Amino acid sequence: MLVSAKEMLNKARDGKYAVGQFNINNLEWTKAILLTAQECNSPVILGVSEGAGKYMCGYKTVVGMVNGMIESLGITVPVALHLDHGSYDGAKACIEAGFSSVMFDGSHYPIEENVAKTTELVNICNELGLSIEAEVGSIGGEEDGVVGAGECADPDECKMISDLGVTMLAAGIGNIHGKYPENWAGLSFETLAAVKDKVGDMPLVLHGGTGIPEDMIKKAISLGVAKINVNTECQLAFAAATREYVEAGKDLQGKGFDPRKLLAPGFEAIKATVKEKMELFGSIDKA
Ligand SMILES: [Zn+2]
Question: pTM of the prediction?
Answer without folding.
Answer: 0.95
